[in-house]
Amino acid sequence: MNIQAKLAFVYITLLSIGVVVISSYAILSIRSFLLDEAIQKFENDARTFAQSFEETTTNEELLKKTSFVSELTGYNVALFDSIGNVLVSTPFQDSELANSREFLNDALQNQLDGSENQVIINEEALDKLISFRRIGDNGSDAQYLRISQYKNDLYAAEASIRHLIYGAMIGSILVVVIVSFFFARYLARPIKQLNEAALEIADGNLDKELNVNRNDEFGMLAESLNKMAGTLKADNDQLKKLNEKQNQFFADITHEVRNPLHTISGALEMIQVPNLDNEKKSQYMATAQKQVERVVRLFEDIKSLQRYDYDESFIRKSEFEIGILLQEVVGTYTPIAAEKELTFQLDIESKVFVKADRDKIEQVLDNLISNAVKYTNEGNILVGCVSKSSEAEISISDSGIGIGKVHLERLFDRFYRTDKARSRDKGGTGLGLSVVKGILSAHKKDIYVESEVEKGSRFYFYLDVVTR
Q: How confident is the model at residue 323 (pLDDT cuts 50, 70, 90)?
């Protein structure tokens, strides 16, 4: 049984029970009201009849009046003499009555002769309502009056009302059935829509948008499902990108390792060539050694990146003067730059202390300055450090080949090269800038770049200044 049928069944059952209970209560209330009204009227009629019989002077006149009252009211009317004998009974004789409670017995006569002028008999086992009343002195033998009426006659009006109530009840139940069906359908529709949407999302259709124009909990749930689908789609797209990057990462590693291995293999083969002079052997040995060092650097960089990603304690901060560190790194590359006829220009503010991991920041500066030297063929390299509020801006600018705008977005991706052939010839692993970004990210900082082709590049980042 689906949710719509269950809801309809519950509503029909509950509302039908409510209609039946209310209708039954109404019928019982009307029945009780009619009985109370009939008893009150019965008492009044008995009193009125008894008073009219007090004016009767002859037995003949008594008979006529009894018949008239019986025909007029529909009551069974009987008169008794002083010792309880029936004088007249209409419309039928008491001898024909099977119900003995309609006879005047000694107990009733004692009550009527005592303080009670009237006795009403309304017993559940009796199908009649009966009233006995004493008649005052008159010129006839009649001393006691009895009137009776079938209770079913009292409920004649109630029967008509009951039929109306039953009809209304049946009509109400039919209305309840129809309304419950549509109401259950109204409630079940968004549940079905939500279920279908959830199934589609589970099947991977994250573009599914659920439109439930309601301001209740179903509308809120639909909105939550749409948000969930949007979040899952975003996460799924991100996972796809990460998977693509991972696949590219492994492909790049394979490519980066294969090339030096081929070079090493070729160099070793050449060394084994007979009658090869010592100078050539030395050249091939140097080539193989250079490629081995390249592979070692590659895996060292990969290991470092992995630690930056997962080891939060890898960064150990301390306070140091950033200007001194810059001068040390520049001093290391000054001879290399001189060979290319490049000059360093320093614009370093003195006494600027920062809090960071000195060794890791040295690695950042080493990568940035070495790149500036590699990709600058003429001109100069500007190394700057200036304090700005609570941070120090460290920048490395060159007048080299520059970087196209199309490459800037992916410049810090692992193994990404703007010119793969030229970059590999420079001896890089393709991970230098990724290492820079990883170290600064571990410091909760970022690396920025401004570049234009054939006009050079400017890399800069910020570190927290320590006030002394």
A: very high
